[in-house]
Each structure stands twice: as structure tokens, then as C-alpha cells.
Automatic annotation (TrEMBL):
Pfam family for this entry, one: PvlArgDC
Species the sequence originates in: Rhodoplanes roseus
Keyword tags: Decarboxylase, Lyase, Pyruvate
Family: Belongs to the pyruvoyl-dependent arginine decarboxylase family.
Co-factor requirement: pyruvate
GO terms assigned for molecular function: arginine decarboxylase activity
UniProt-listed GO biological process terms: L-arginine catabolic process
Organism taxonomic ancestry: Bacteria, Pseudomonadati, Pseudomonadota, Alphaproteobacteria, Hyphomicrobiales
Keyword Lyase: yes
UniProt name for this protein: Pyruvoyl-dependent arginine decarboxylase AaxB
Length: 189
């Protein structure tokens, strides 16, 4: 049995190359997680899992380490095609409860649209778990206000990588990740 993560950080990156796998590698380099053996997991933010800045999380990584993450990944070799990869996070006010992480990957959206969409997905999943009554057809801004006034959700946020396909037809890859850490907080310095 694996331990429960104690921390999470968000990161994103974009890479371009004539080979799709190398474009993915370059996106991971841009996100500063290329030296990890990444294992993608689903969408639960563990209770009491602390959100830390990327700058604090990356130094805790060891090359070759098995590293759990929620990953959104989009790629294209179509010149001018817009791609997005976004992670949304929703945390409950009560730290003893779990939250949600959503991943969204798509085409044609702006960075803001993708971020809002991923954030909305995570917040909606959390709200339904907490029993918050909402209209699923209402606009995200309306639901966000409801969630904020419910006093059950402490915050929502997102991180998005957005890119446009290279003019020469090379592969372009965008990744966004929520990277889990098990390092005790006192080891962060």
C-alpha cells in the first residue's frame, strides 16, 4: 500500500519537435518533471494534502523516482492548431475532507477558457460530494459565486499550458500536472 500524499504542486510546460515523443519530453522539461517516472492517477486530492509552490516541490524530486501525478496532455502536428492542457483543483474548507483535481485537454480553447473549464469540473465534483445544491446549466461564474458563499469550499484554481501548432508541422505538446509528494514538510527547509 502506498502512503497518502501530503503535498501537491502544479506545473505546466510546452515542447516542440519533429517527433511526438520528443515534443512530450520537451514539454516535461519545460514543466521541470522530465527526470521522473511519471505514473498518472485519477482525481482525488487527499485530505490535508497541502498545496505548495512549484519552486518548493521540484527540489524534492529525485531522478528516476516513481512520481504520481494527475496529468493533462494535448498534442498536434497541425500548423496553427490551438491546444490546451489544464489542471483544475478544488479544496474543501474542512481539511479533513478530500478535494478534487480535474484534467482537461482540448483544442481551440484559449488558456483562460481551458483553465475555467478545468476549475469548473473540479469544483462541480467537489460541490456534488459536499451536497451543495446548484444548477448544472448555470454559467461557471454563477456557480463559482455559489460555491464561495457556501463556506464549504475554500478555493478553486487552475493551471494551463496553451500552445499553437508549429508552422512547419513539427509536433507541439502541452502538459499540465498536479504532482504528488510524500516528503514531510519539515524537510522542505
Amino acid at each position: 500500500m502506498f502512503p497518502v500524499p501530503t503535498m501537491v504542486f502544479l506545473t505546466h510546460g510546452v515542447g516542440t519537435h519533429k517527433q511526438p515523443l520528443t515534443a512530450f519530453e520537451y514539454a516535461l522539461r519545460d514543466a521541470d518533471i522530465e527526470q521522473q517516472n511519471l505514473v498518472t492517477v485519477s482525481s482525488i486530492l487527499p485530505p490535508r494534502c497541502r498545496l505548495i509552490p512549484r519552486e518548493a516541490g521540484v527540489p524534492t524530486l529525485a531522478p528516476g523516482e516513481i512520481t504520481f501525478c494527475v496529468m493533462a496532455r494535448a498534442e498536434t502536428n497541425e500548423p496553427g492548431r490551438r491546444i490546451v492542457a489544464s489542471i483544475g483543483l478544488a479544496r474543501p474548507k474542512d481539511p479533513a475532507l478530500y478535494g478534487y483535481i480535474s484534467e482537461h485537454h482540448g483544442y481551440g480553447m484559449t488558456e483562460q477558457q481551458a483553465g475555467d473549464y478545468a476549475e469548473d469540473l473540479a469544483a462541480t465534483m467537489l460541490a456534488s460530494t459536499l451536497g451543495i445544491e446548484f444548477d448544472p446549466n448555470a454559467a461557471w461564474d454563477e456557480r463559482r459565486k455559489l460555491y464561495e458563499t457556501s463556506e464549504l469550499i475554500v478555493d478553486t484554481l487552475s493551471m494551463t499550458a496553451a500552445a499553437t501548432g508549429a508552422d512547419n508541422g513539427d509536433w507541439t505538446c502541452a502538459v499540465a500536472c498536479a504532482v504528488f509528494r510524500f516528503t514531510p514538510a519539515e524537510q522542505l527547509g
